[in-house]
């Protein structure tokens, strides 16, 4: 499915990928992830999307965001909003879908293959739009979690589905005890 001359871009939904890997019991080594896709084609861009809690003194995801930025990832962040739900629970909202879609559509004319790291069914129209522009789309998520983290309609629309668990030996490392949670 990957060709050496393919112009590739990675679109990583940070919170979705973190949750999928955690459900499978491993952490992602982002240096290895980047190297793996550089090996599979000509990596044009690797985007990583996450919301950040800006009003806290220390954000547990900040070291990861800084490391990714320093190591060649194009970081797309925005402030997360905190709110209290109807049951009085503290919730955080920081959806990055629109930013991901805009970047993918802007880059599409210069791509042969887009790799989406998300199982969110809301991305099905994006996959269709990219395919109409002649871009092949691989989706990386998991069916091996309970419940599966990949929306069936997204998996079926993609040209290629990559089971995240199958990448464990290539891009994974054991989870750390005090690992920073992904926003």
TrEMBL record:
One Pfam family recorded for the sequence: NYN
InterPro entries: LabA (IPR047140), NYN (IPR021139)
Superkingdom of the source species: Bacteria
Gene Ontology MF annotations: RNA nuclease activity
Domain NYN: 7-165
UniProt protein name: Uncharacterized LabA/DUF88 family protein
Species whose genome carries this gene: Paracoccus lutimaris
Higher taxonomy: Bacteria, Pseudomonadati, Pseudomonadota, Alphaproteobacteria, Rhodobacterales
């Amino acid at each position: 499915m990957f060709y050496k001359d393919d112009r590739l871009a990675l679109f990583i939904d940070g919170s979705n990928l973190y949750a999928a890997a955690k459900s499978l019991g491993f952490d992602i080594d982002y240096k290895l992830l980047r190297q793996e896709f550089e090996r599979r084609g000509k990596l044009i861009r690797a985007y990583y999307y996450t919301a950040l809690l800006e009003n806290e003194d220390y954000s547990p995801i900040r070291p990861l965001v800084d490391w990714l930025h320093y190591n060649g990832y194009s970081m797309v962040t925005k402030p997360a909003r905190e709110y209290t739900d109807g049951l009085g629970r503290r919730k955080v909202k920081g959806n990055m879908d629109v930013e991901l879609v805009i970047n993918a559509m802007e880059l599409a004319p210069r791509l042969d293959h887009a790799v989406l790291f998300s199982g969110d069914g809301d991305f099905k129209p994006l996959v269709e739009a990219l395919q109409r522009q002649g871009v092949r789309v691989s989706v990386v998520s998991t069916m091996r979690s309970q419940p599966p983290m990949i929306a069936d309609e997204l998996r079926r629309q993609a040209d290629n589905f990559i089971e995240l668990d199958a990448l464990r030996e290539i891009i994974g490392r054991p989870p750390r005890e005090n690992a920073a949670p992904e926003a």
